[in-house]
Every structure is written in C-alpha cells, then in structure tokens.
Specification:
280 residues; four-stranded antiparallel sheet; alpha+beta; Jelly Rolls
C-alpha cells in the first residue's frame, strides 16, 4: 500500500532498481532526498523487496488514528450528551449530533468575528500558506486551549474520539458567505509533495478531521464526499468526523471532500485536525 503512495515515476524507479538487485540501504537515501517521508520510503521499499507484502515483523499499521467508541447510540463526553447519528466504515465517517450547545455555537462565532481573515491553503511545493481561488472563506485560527471555551470543546473532542488533546492543531473557525466554498480536497499532507515535508515534521500526518457546524444555512453549504456520493447538510451543534488515513494508517484518498457553495445565508464551521504525534 505504501508503494502505491509514490508517484508512478517513483514506483517504476523502485521496481527497476529492485529488479537490478539494488539494496534497501542504497535506495532509501535517494527516496528521502527525492522528497519522501522517511517512514513512507522505508515501507515502500519493504513492500517492493518482499513482493508487495510486509513481513510479519512489519505487519503493524503505519500509524495510529482516533478510535471513537461507537457501540452506543448516545454518549456523554465531558458532561455533554452526544448522539451517534450516522456511521460509515470505510472510509471511517461519523456524524455526531448535539456535540455543542446552542450557546457554545454562538460564543464560537462571536469569538471568531474578532479576528477573521482571508482563508489560505498549503502550497504543494513550498508548504507555505497562501490564498487560493478554490477556498473562498474567512478564517480565524486559535491556539490550543486559548480560552476556557476552546479548552472545554477540545477536551470534549479528545474524550469523544479517544485521541489526546496535544495530538491536535488549534481550532479554526471559518465563515462562508453567499457563494463561499472550498472545492474538493484532502486534509492529509500528500507524502510525495515537497511542500508537505515541513508539516509532517511537526506532529506527523493528519490522521483525522472534525468539522463542527455552528450555524443554520438556508440553502447550500453542505459537506460532500464526491467519491462516496455522500453529502451532509449543516446542522448547528453537530460534528462530522472522518479519518484521513485508513485502518493501516495509509492516507485515504476516498476522504476527498468539498465545502459546497453557500446559496443563501452564512455558514460558520470550526475545524479540528488531529495529528499522529504531539503537535507543538
């Protein structure tokens, strides 16, 4: 699976050199120099050298991911009663209702209004944040635990998803006016792109995404997974969680998703990205 995460040219290079009898140690530095994460390069070479299968000693997942307990339909997380409304197994997608109270939604929106700025995307090559026509929203970034409200919500998410608070980026609140959208994209950092490396070094890969819906939207503004044919309309207080990696810890391309254009009204959401390691 890791070999398939390389570009077609790199896959061909690996197979050609394996066929020539080149050693793992001779190929690994060249893959890393080519912009691939160390762990991905190691796994890709191991797969190629073992005929496409990892040996028993390396049969564990590439990385972990959140593991929400979905056995019950209703949960209590940090004092908040939450309902499990919908579950998809692969990719793992879960809709939680009543994660936030109406008052918490209003407070989040008010807090964000004090620092909204044009939203950005990560440049594929340089790894820098820059505006892009595919993302037409205003956003406000917050440090983890910056206010008691944010700390309470982050603790609730950590309990719900069974993933440590320090393994997450700070919350980001986004505002989409009429026509505002975020075209189809992945949240994980593509390991073969040079711009991803600086982000992967700080907390590792994004292994999960949680979108908190803060406002009613009269028309449009849904979150759509085009490969799944699934769309969720905004419900204030609800949260959409999806794992950015599969059960083996490999980036899951089926998580391609889009924030559809707002037709009428204003959409407010808060996004929480979860990392494989502590994020500083």
């Amino acid at each position: 699976m890791s070999l398939q995460q390389l570009s077609p040219d790199w896959q061909a290079w690996v197979r050609e050199n394996v066929g020539r009898g080149c050693s793992r140690d001779s190929m690994l530095p060249l893959l890393v120099q080519g912009g691939h994460a160390q762990v991905l390069a190691e796994r890709a070479l191991d797969e190629a050298l073992n005929g496409g299968a990892l040996d028993a000693a390396q049969g564990q997942a590439l990385r972990g991911r959140p593991a929400p307990d979905l056995r019950a339909n209703r949960l209590v997380c940090e004092g908040q009663g939450v309902r499990v409304a919908a579950v998809l197994d692969a990719p793992q997608v879960v809709l939680f209702e009543n994660l936030l109270s109406a008052d918490e939604c209003r407070q989040m929106i008010a807090l964000a209004e004090t620092r909204l700025a044009r939203s950005t995307v990560v440049d594929d090559q340089l790894g820098e944040a820059r505006p892009h026509e595919h993302r037409t929203s205003a956003g406000a970034w917050f440090h983890r635990g910056e206010t008691p409200l944010l700390a309470r919500i982050e603790a609730r998410l950590a309990a719900l998803l069974r993933w440590p608070v320090d393994h997450g980026e700070g919350l980001q609140v986004l505002r989409y006016g009429p026509g505002g959208e975020y075209r189809a994209h992945h949240d994980f950092f593509h390991p073969t792109l040079s711009g991803s490396q600086r982000h992967l070094q700080q907390g590792g890969q994004r292994v999960g995404t949680c979108i908190l819906y803060l406002s009613e939207v009269e028309a449009g503004g849904g979150t759509r997974f085009p490969q799944l044919g699934y769309e969720l309309r905004p419900i204030p207080g609800s949260a959409l969680y999806f794992a950015d990696v599969d059960a083996q810890g490999v980036e899951d391309h089926a998580t391609l998703h889009a924030g559809l254009p707002v037709i009428e009204g204003v959409k407010y959401i808060a996004t929480k990205w979860l990392r494989e390691r502590p994020y500083v």
